[in-house]
Design a protein that fits this description.
Chain B: Keywords: ATP-binding, Cell membrane, Membrane, Nucleotide-binding, Phosphate transport, Translocase, Transport. Chain B: Pfam families: ABC_tran (PF00005). Chain B: It comes from Christiangramia crocea. Chain B: It is found in: Cell inner membrane. The complex is a heterotrimer. By secondary structure, chain A is mainly α. Chain A folds into 2 domains: about 40 residues; about 240 residues, MetI-like fold. Helices cover about 80% and strands about 0% of the residues of chain A. Chain A starts with a helix and ends with a helix. Chain B contains 10 helices and 10 strands. In chain B, helix 3 crosses helix 4, helix 4 crosses helix 6 and helix 6 runs parallel beside helix 7. Chain B is globular. Classes of the chains: A mainly alpha, B alpha/beta, C mainly alpha. Chains B and C meet through helix 2, helix 3 and helix 6 of B and helix 7 and helix 8 of C.
């Protein structure tokens, strides 16, 4: 009886963990089936070479590059902002800051990642864009610069926290050795600690990029809904994620070509983030082995 | 007794106190490719204290943990040979490991009370057997705590966290927890190595008293302790049983040179 | 000597740069919250909480969205909690190191990085259409439950991992079975840690917008949901809707609703941090 009970419980627990695999299979199936339907109507070559994306107009174009450029542009701005700031924070906190300061500031910084993204969108549109416009009047009300910067603020803790953990994991003996040689904190940080923690830092940056690429509400609110193949940060653009939201807000018939476009866009997004996540997982595994 | 088919002659029935013999037959243990026990056979006498001594890494703890199958949780663990308790090979397929462990209690190196109240700690073994009778539980808890001499110290604090006790008290609590399910055999893996001398003395007294009712096997790195409390002593070295004899004999007149070197402090 | 002085100056300069960076994010957050408070605090009153949405900004309230959020939060918890904790127990306590465990581990780490809008597409196809739930509270809850599942699993595993091995040893040595050990010892001992993770996961769920928009949750719902199969809105969608309206009155509404949403998020985070601190002391 008891053996049976144990067995039933173990099976139930196993099934629960297998649900996570079902979710992945579900995502891949849903995205690819609808995407295959899409590509039976739209040439895959056009999809990757056309620079216009106008599925909702009468003159339909399906060039994902127009959405991809918006995604990459906003992500690039976010990363360009968050990496130097986030890394400086992590080095400061792990090498300079008093312990008590570190303990109070870390949860506060993590609060930045806890703020709902729709709230950040409001911030970008209502505060940052008007501020940018007061300096550069030619910036339009929807632009990738403002969305990118705010997204950068949001992902600061992703970089600072994970990098700080990586720096923290470097054995103290290495730190002591560097100080023993008479190096300053700065020299120690950049010549010894950062190289030693490099894989962890790289992982944090990759995860931040992946987060930026998948971010939806900030760009949907502040970057605009005009797909265009451009790298000009002052004009309205549209990201893959924002397009999916835009279509979802409208009244799109299931089975229509418009309906399928969001899955084609979705699978492009999924592949990008999947590659980044896998890469970061690989590096992290390798990194763990190094110190164990 | 431990086998499933004999399950009905209950675990709680203390009238059934038989003399339990432990026996190892040509036991080999591997961790992965590493041969940790290199073919050991020995008989352990009932209602006596048997001590395992030897330098760290000699396999004495591994060997001890064979008797309640605690090595089963080590991923790379593999064994050959037989461990018999009263004639039953405890590594047989039809052995119920949970019942075995009720028969063969264990006390660990570091006191490891559950992060629960003192009462819950002692009652745990009975509760997981499905015993719900509050009065019976209460009695067993009191009895067990009295056996280890902890009752007077904690009588009014039974609902306080066990983690608040001192190290020595925690270890006595762990012994009480083991006694509560009325095992016949108690395995002790360096039970005093984390304790101060006064607590150690208390535990040693306790172990000495317990031998009337229980068969006790104790691993220790402390040779004085082995000579103070044990009836027989086994000396292990690099996975081999080098010498096994009456404690008196082994410490005063060892047969093997390795034993003599070890007990006179020339290595280990 | 000169060189050493230069190095020391650089060292000091970096220190101040580091402090500036650390404070930058927080200062921006403070400016932003200040801004929102100025815009929205005057708008919050009892009517704002209990009024139904309306075409007139000054008569609109967040009642339906707030109720929608609460419904979704409760159902999401009911779905994600048992599955997530069970999966974590399996991975941490039952699973031997083998091929399956590696696959599960890689898979969960990948799921945690899938953009939320993709979960929306999954929910749209599977729950809304194939399982015919429509754009209901239930479909939304299932979608968010899948979204937070990896977070619940990872944090539960961390909490279980923090229970010392000696507790497992002691329990097994007392003759407890695996499940008895999990149920009587490990779950109570890791309760605080699990709770922390779950609350953080839920605070993430309460702020999610995109996946719910994708499964068809509405910006305008005339009534609060009365069953799991009803249509619904949630606070973030209501906020999004107000932000995108040109009339100024709605900006105030958005700011006011943001204050409520931030309050919920921060309180949940605060509770989580409180439990974490309290629980971490237990084993030290």
């Amino acid at each position: 009886m008891r053996k049976l009970k144990e067995l039933v419980i173990e099976r139930a627990l196993l099934i629960s963990s297998l649900i996570t695999i079902a979710v992945t299979i579900g995502i891949i199936l849903v995205l690819s089936i609808e995407a295959i339907n899409f590509f039976s109507e739209v040439s895959i070559i056009d999809f990757f070479t056309d620079t216009e994306w106008t599925p909702l107009f009468t003159d339909k174009h399906f060039g994902i590059l127009a959405l991809l450029s918006g995604t990459l542009l906003t992500s690039f701005i976010a990363i360009a902002f968050a990496v130097p700031v986030g890394l400086s924070i992590s080095i400061y906190l792990s090498e300079y800051a008093p312990k008590s300061f570190r303990r109070t500031i870390k949860p506060l910084l993590e609060l930045l990642a806890a703020v709902p993204t729709v709230v950040y969108g409001f911030f970008a549109l209502m505060v940052v864009t008007p501020f940018l416009q007061s300096i550069f009047p030619e910036i339009s009300s929807f632009n990738s610069l403002s969305a990118g910067i705010v997204m950068g603020i949001m992902i600061i803790p992703y970089i600072s926290s994970l990098s700080e953990d990586a720096l923290h994991a470097v054995p103290d003996s290495l730190r002591e050795a560097a100080y023993g040689m008479g190096s300053t904190k700065l020299q120690n940080a950049f010549k010894v600690m950062v190289p030693a923690a490099s894989s962890g830092i790289v992982v944090s940056i990759i995860l931040a990029i992946s987060r930026a690429i998948g971010e939806t509400m900030i760009v949907a609110i502040a970057a605009g809904q005009q797909p265009r193949f451009t790298f000009d940060p002052t004009v309205p653009v549209e990201t893959i994620t924002a397009y999916i939201v835009q279509v979802s807000l409208g009244d799109v018939q299931h089975g229509s070509l418009e309906y399928k476009t969001i899955f084609a866009a979705g699978i492009t997004l999924f592949i990008f983030t999947f590659l980044l996540n896998t890469l970061s997982y690989r590096i992290r595994k390798k990194f763990q082995e190094k110190y164990e | 007794m431990i086998k499933k088919k004999k399950k009905q002659d209950s675990i709680i029935d203390s009238s059934l106190k038989r003399k339990y013999k432990l026996q190892a037959k040509n036991v080999k243990v591997w961790y992965g490719d590493f041969l940790a026990i290199k073919g050991v056979s020995m008989d352990i006498k009932p209602n006596k204290i048997t001590a395992f001594i030897g330098p760290s890494g000699c396999g004495k703890s591994t060997f001890l943990r064979l008797f309640n199958r605690m090595n089963d949780y080590v991923d790379s663990f593999r064994m050959e040979g037989e461990i018999n308790i009263d004639g039953d090979n405890i590594y047989d397929k039809d052995i119920n490991v949970e019942l075995l462990r009720k028969q063969v209690g264990m006390v660990f190196q570091k006191p490891n009370p559950f992060p629960k109240s003192i009462y819950e700690n002692v009652a745990y073994g009975l509760k997981i057997q499905g015993i719900k009778d509050k009065k019976f539980l209460q009695e067993r808890v009191e009895e067990s705590l009295k056996q280890v001499g902890l009752w007077n110290e904690v009588e009014d604090d039974l609902n306080k966290s066990a983690l608040a006790l001192s190290g020595g008290q925690q270890q006595r609590l762990c012994i009480a927890r083991t006694l509560a399910v009325e095992p016949s055999i108690i395995l002790m893996d360096e039970p005093t190595s984390a304790l101060d001398p006064i607590s150690t003395a208390k535990i040693e007294d306790l172990i000495y008293q317990l031998k009337e009712k229980y068969t006790i096997v104790i691993v220790t790195h402390n040779m004085q302790q082995a000579s103070r409390i044990s009836d027989s002593t086994a000396f292990f070295y690099m996975g081999d049983l080098i010498e096994y004899d009456k404690t008196n004999k082994l410490f005063t007149n060892p047969e093997k040179e390795q034993t003599e070197n070890y007990i006179t402090g020339r290595f280990g | 000597m000169n060189n050493i002085r230069k190095n020391r100056i650089k060292d000091q300069a970096f220190k101040y740069w580091g402090i500036a960076c650390t404070l930058l994010g927080l200062v921006l957050l403070a400016i932003f919250i200040g801004n929102i408070l100025i815009d929205g605090i005057m708008r919050i009153d009892w009517d704002f909480i209990v009024n139904l949405p309306s075409r007139k900004a000054e008569r609109s309230g967040i009642y339906t969205a707030l109720m929608g959020s609460i419904w979704v939060l409760l159902l999401t918890t009911l779905i994600a909690l048992p599955v997530g904790i069970a999966a974590a127990i399996y991975l941490e306590e039952y699973n031997k190191k083998n091929k399956l465990s590696t696959i599960l581990e890689v898979n969960i780490s990948n799921l945690a990085g899938v953009p939320s809008v993709i979960y929306g597409l999954l929910g749209l196809e599977v729950f809304v259409r194939i399982m015919e739930m429509g754009s209901s509270v239930l479909a939304g809850s299932f979608t968010l439950a899948l979204l937070i599942l990896p977070i619940v699993i990872v944090s539960t595993r961390e909490a279980l991992k923090a229970v010392p091995k000696s507790v497992r040893d002691a329990s097994f040595a007392m003759g407890a079975s695996k499940w008895q050990t999990v149920y009587h010892q490990l779950l109570p001992a890791s309760f605080g840690g699990i709770l922390t993770g779950v609350i953080l996961a839920l605070s993430r769920a309460v702020g999610e917008t995109a996946p719910l928009i994708v499964i068809g949750a509405l910006a305008y719902v005339p009534f609060a949901p009365s069953s799991a199969m009803d249509e619904f809105s949630v606070l973030p969608i209501q906020i999004f809707n107000w932000i995108t309206r040109p009339q100024h009155g709605f900006v105030e509404n958005a700011a006011a609703a943001i204050i409520i949403l931030l309050l919920i998020t921060f309180v949940m985070n605060g509770i989580a941090v409180y439990f974490r601190n309290k629980w971490q002391k237990k084993f030290k």
